[in-house]
Design brief:
- By secondary structure, the chain is an all-alpha fold.
- It has a domain of about 40 residues.
- The two termini are about 75 Å apart.
């Protein structure tokens, strides 16, 4: 008796193996009983199909390739008459604005075709106080100008490597 308590794991494994074998045998016997019962219910001469049913092979072999997909686009939604009129009116107004701007540009070109000196004198007389900056010649003079330093920082951020790669 002491041996059983000392080697309890071995006894448990043997009991588990016997229980598994016993269950397998019981399942096999139950399956045999069901099969025998099913054979007894169905007479030997009777077929699975009814008397007026007959099993046939399909005439057309099954295709292994699915049919191609057909894309169907819904028709465009018809616009209401008022909405269409508003849209065409806005488009016509935009075209008229563009035509007017083109006419003004052509007139300005005709006036300014007197040469580069005439153009410079006209622009100088029309200036509203804007003073063109002269490009700095050296790094030291560029760093003295606060605007140039800001511009350099922005350009470095834009043109430099991304933050994730630094």
């Amino acid at each position: 008796m002491d041996w059983i308590f000392d080697h309890f794991q071995i006894v448990a494994l043997v009991a588990l193996a016997l229980a598994s074998w016993f269950k397998t045998r019981m399942d096999a016997k139950a399956a045999e009983r069901e099969e025998r019962h099913a054979r007894e219910e169905m007479p030997e001469g009777e077929d699975v199909f009814g008397p007026d049913q007959e099993w046939r092979m399909p005439e057309v072999p099954m295709r292994s390739v699915p049919p191609p997909l057909v894309r169907v686009h819904p028709p465009p939604m018809p616009m209401a008459a008022e909405e269409a009129a508003r849209e065409s009116e806005a488009l016509l107004k935009h075209q008229m604005d563009l035509q007017e701007r083109l006419r003004q540009l052509r007139e300005a070109k005709a006036v300014t075709s007197g040469g580069a000196a005439a153009t410079r004198s006209r622009t100088a007389s029309q200036q509203t106080g804007y003073v063109a900056q002269i490009a700095s010649t050296g790094l030291r003079t560029a760093l003295r100008n606060r605007q140039e330093v800001r511009r350099a920082i922005v350009l470095r951020e834009i043109l430099g490597p991304p933050l994730g790669l630094r």
